[in-house]
């Protein structure tokens, strides 16, 4: 197997880091090959009991057979390309609507002391929203944080790095989004009721005003049902014929 150029080795080294017995590696172009995994393991010379965590992209490959030969005993896969899954795509659409109701202050509060700018943090929370799902195992999130760079969302997911963050921050983010979703639905229902009520009152007023105008007892409101009412606001002309 031919070795890639040295600069490619350096890029992969930057995208892979080891902490204790955990090695986390990001793909170069959104999908993994066995060669990339092997090269990352060779760069770090991990212990046989190492846990490898791969962030897979558009076309995830399963390098378990290669990893077993290298002594890796556990592999954790995280699907990043949510567009390939219709359920995640729909879930993300709803999450994106909810995030529009979060203020910059709330977004900043969900970050850490060295949070990126508001636009970057917004992308961070979008990436977190893809992985914080009610039906998923959240144990691995207890010490994880996602930081990303400004730009295209797909490229952002492929370029974010990993740092530590308290688990409570992610839970707070999920609860905040859920509350925003609930508040938005409640506001929609309140506006819907108010809209129906105002329309009903307006129709009834127009009906009553038309009846009173017909009997010469106008309310002084320009009822669309009786052209005589408009004449009261334009005395220079003759009253319209009915």
Task: Walk me through what this model shows.
The protein is an alpha/beta fold. It is 49% helix and 11% strand. It has a four-stranded mixed sheet. It has a two-stranded antiparallel ribbon with strand order 5-6. The relative contact order is 0.08. Mean pLDDT is 45; it is low at 1-15, 27-36, 55-63, 75-89, 98-171 and 218-242.
Order of helices and strands: HEEHEHEHHHEHEHH
The percent range for strand residues is: 5-15%
Low-confidence stretches: 1-15, 27-36, 55-63, 75-89, 98-171, 218-242
Structural class: alpha/beta
Strand order of the largest sheet: 1-2-3-4
Percentage of residues assigned to helices: 40-55%
Layout: helices, strands, pairs:
Layout: H1 6-14, E1 16-19, E2 22-25, H2 34-44, E3 51-56, H3 64-69, E4 74-79, H4 86-99, H5 104-109, H6 118-131, E5 145-147, H7 153-159, E6 161-163, H8 167-214, H9 228-231
Parallel strand pairs: 2-3, 3-4
Antiparallel strand pairs: 1-2, 5-6
Helix pairs in contact: 4-6, 4-8
């Amino acid at each position: 197997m031919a070795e890639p150029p040295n600069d490619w080795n350096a890029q992969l080294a930057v995208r892979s880091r080891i902490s204790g017995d955990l090695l986390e590696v990001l793909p170069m172009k959104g999908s993994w090959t066995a060669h990339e995994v092997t090269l990352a393991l060779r760069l770090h010379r991990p212990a046989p009991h190492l846990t490898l965590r791969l962030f897979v992209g558009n076309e995830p490959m399963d390098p378990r057979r290669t990893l077993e030969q290298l002594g890796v005993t556990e592999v954790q896969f995280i699907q990043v390309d949510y567009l390939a899954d219709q359920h995640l795509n729909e879930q993300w659409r709803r999450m994106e609507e909810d995030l529009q109701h979060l203020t910059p202050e709330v977004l900043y509060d969900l970050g850490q002391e060295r949070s990126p700018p508001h636009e970057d943090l917004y992308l961070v929370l979008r990436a977190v929203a893809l992985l914080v799902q009610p039906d998923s195992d959240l144990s691995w999130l207890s010490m994880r944080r996602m930081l990303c760079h400004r730009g295209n969302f797909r490229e952002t997911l492929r370029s974010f790095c990993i740092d530590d963050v308290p688990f409570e921050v992610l839970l707070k983010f999920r609860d905040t989004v859920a509350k925003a979703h609930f508040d938005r639905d409640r506001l929609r229902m309140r506006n819907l009721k108010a809209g129906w009520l105002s329309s009903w009152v307006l129709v009834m007023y127009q009906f009553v005003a038309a009846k009173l105008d017909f009997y010469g007892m106008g309310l002084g409101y320009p009822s669309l049902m009786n052209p005589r009412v408009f004449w009261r606001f334009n005395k220079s002309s003759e009253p319209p014929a009915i």
